[in-house]
Design goal:
This protein is mainly alpha-helical. Helices cover 72% and strands 4% of the residues. α3 runs parallel beside α5 and α8 crosses α9. The radius of gyration is 25 Å and the shape is globular.
Length: 380
């Protein structure tokens, strides 16, 4: 993870640099200085982040607004399912929760960049926000992988078998994922409390890990986990799509044969979103983490930091795309939203025509819509 805190009080931030970095700094007014909050023998690299801060502020603000609205609507729909949920619904509900928790971290990042990259809320909150951000990002990644695996299993198992096994198991799996994540979160916070430097004013920033190799190894493990999940998604959705396409060809004369082709096409939506949002970030992570372990020139540290921040913004867009994924992949989600909007508009129309006709649950039409709404919820 890249969040950290380091002593500074200006909008031009500094990073640890090596003694031979002066060849990259001949045109800069600042020189390498001792790092008061870093490791012994470490020095400070000046960095100008004014343009980057503006870009990050704009994009994080868009992600916050769009993601907040989309995931609240998704959560409302999932929580509106009062009957026994299936395994996919369990996973999607947890994805929506993880996305919302990540989105709630964004105002702190926005405030930090608006404040010219000066953190005034203390190292504990910096560590808390940073850890929550990454924790929920990887929870979403793991859950999306589990969704692809679950869909593949459902295709290869009988309906009765999958109902008997996967719903309860998905609850246990989600609880395990959250439990492990919370334990890791608490471990990070406790380690921060044991360290000093609580007057630091830099957060969400590059730092060397010469004396934190354990943290670097943990970050390597997260990257490896991501690529394993990505491989799982590729294999699962290729299998799903090929299976559905075969069925659509066999049942070409059936009235609903086209739905198999549509489902096969939509099966790649998760993979496309996953690839766009997460692959660039994790493809760069190996380079980024390795640079933190080595003696890297200031020139390259600034480049690596800027690229990492841009890739991180791209990964954050997943919180906006997930609600779109729910809508596109599930015809039941679309029907529920259409019916909710239909009931709203029809209710307003009824009030304008005759107040006596508007009695919730009493008219045959409203009863029909309610029945259909519940039916769609049952099969979601």
């Amino acid at each position: 993870m890249t969040f950290t805190v380091s002593m500074t009080s200006t909008s031009t931030h500094s990073l640890p640099c090596s003694s031979y970095d002066n060849i990259f700094m001949n045109n800069q007014s600042s020189q390498c200085q001792n790092d008061s909050s870093g490791t012994p023998n470490a020095t400070i690299c000046p960095m100008n982040e004014q343009l980057l801060s503006v870009v990050l502020t704009i994009f994080y603000s868009v992600i916050f607004i769009v993601g907040l609205v989309g995931n609240i609507i998704a959560l409302y729909i999932f929580l509106g399912i009062h009957h026994k949920r299936n395994s996919i619904q369990i996973y999607l509900l947890n994805v929506a929760i993880a996305d919302l928790l990540l989105i709630f971290c964004l105002p702190f990042r926005i405030l930090y960049h608006v404040n010219k990259n000066i953190w005034t809320l203390g190292v504990i909150l910096c560590r808390t926000v940073g850890t929550l951000f990454y924790m929920n990002m990887y929870i979403s990644i793991i859950l999306l992988g589990l969704i692809s695996l679950d869909r593949y299993i459902k295709i290869n198992r009988s309906i009765h078998q999958q109902k008997a096994l996967t719903t309860k198991q998905s609850i246990y799996i989600c609880c395990t994922v959250w439990a492990v994540a919370i334990i890791g979160f608490l471990t990070m916070i406790i380690s921060t409390l044991k360290k000093g430097g609580h007057n630091s004013t830099m957060c969400f920033h590059y730092r060397d890990k010469h004396n934190a190799k354990g943290e670097a190894i943990f970050n390597y493990i997260l990257v490896i986990v991501f690529w394993l999940i990505f491989l799982l998604l590729i294999l699962s959705y290729i299998k799903i799509a090929s299976y559905l396409l075969k069925i659509s060809k066999r049942r070409v004369n059936f009235p609903n044969s086209g739905k198999y082709h549509t489902t096969a096409r939509n099966s790649f939506i998760v993979l496309i979103i996953f690839t766009i949002c997460f692959v660039p970030y994790h493809a760069f992570r190996f380079i980024y983490i390795t640079s933190q372990l080595k003696t890297t020139p200031c020139y390259w540290k600034e480049i690596f930091h800027n690229i990492n921040e841009i890739m991180l913004v791209l990964s954050s867009f997943n919180s906006c795309f997930d609600p779109v994924m729910y809508f596109l992949m599930s015809s039941n989600i679309r029907k529920i939203i259409y019916q909710l909007l239909s009931r709203r508009f029809q209710g307003e129309s009824s009030r304008s025509e005759s107040t006596s006709e508007f009695r919730a649950g009493h008219s045959p039409h409203d009863t029909s819509v309610s029945v259909k709404f519940n039916q769609h919820l049952r099969v979601l």
